Amino acid sequence: MGIETVRQFFAEHAPDVKIKVLETSTATVQLAAEAHGVAPGQIAKTLAFKVGEKPLLIVASGDARIDNRKIRDTFGGKAKMLDAETVMELTSHPVGGVCPFGLATDLPVYCDESLHAYDEVLPAAGSPTSAVRLSPKRLAELVNAKWVDVCKLPESDYLLSSQANAKHLETSIEQYHSGQAQPRSLFEK
Fold first, then answer.
1. Same domain, yes or no, for 122 and 92?
2. Which residues of 127-142 are buried (b: 16+ CB within 10 A; e: fewer)?
């Protein structure tokens, strides 16, 4: 189970891909990024959901967050994250080592566009201490994944916040110049 099924998968489908096993845990995006010396976004996290009655896997950049509206628009329903026991049963991988390789059941796999920000990504390899390094394109090809846009990146949150703050500042300045606002209220919301 776990790393052994991933080893078998790569032996059959991509013998040139080597599994790297570390002595420290890489069970979270932050731990994995530190252990491999890469940015958190370069870690390819695999998330297990159920939309309606259908389980599915989404592989996304480590710093990306699932956007519920995009999930509904893409899959036609609300996504519910699967519990650890169900994930283990469906994938044969423990949480912290979940990946789209060597799955126990035939699950649809989707790769989020956020992975395209990197030339190489590091998904787990069936255990909380293992990973592989490959291009997002190759990752998707190996698991017959479809590309989707279901995440938002931290910078998009920052940009939205910055745009809202800029609009508020612009409105406050207009109010000040028109005599509708006092100077002390310029930066109050």
1. yes
2. bbbbbbbbebeebbeb
Structure tokens at 167: 């609009």
Query: Where residue 177 falls among pLDDT bands split at 50, 70, 90?
Result: low
Q: Please indicate, yes or no, whether residues 92 and 164 belong to a single structural domain of this protein.
A: no
Contacting residues for 132 by C-beta, under 8 A, at least 6 apart: 6, 10, 17, 18, 19, 20, 101, 122, 123, 125
Identity of the residue numbered 129: T
CA 47/CA 34 separation, integer angstroms: 20
Contact 125, 19 (CB under 8 A): yes
Calpha distance 20→18 (Å, rounded): 6
Q: Among candidates 121, 124, 125, which has minimal Cα distance to 138?
A: 121
pLDDT tens-digit series, residues 112-152: 999 999 999 999 999 999 999 999 999 999 999 999 999 99
Q: Read out DSSP for 120-183?
A: -BEEB-SSTTEE--B-HHHHHHHTTPEEE--EE-HHHHHHHHHHHHHHHHHHHHHHHHTTSS-G
The answer, as to whether pTM is greater than 0.70, is: yes
142 shares its domain with 159: no
**Statement to judge: residues 161 and 87 lie in one domain:** no
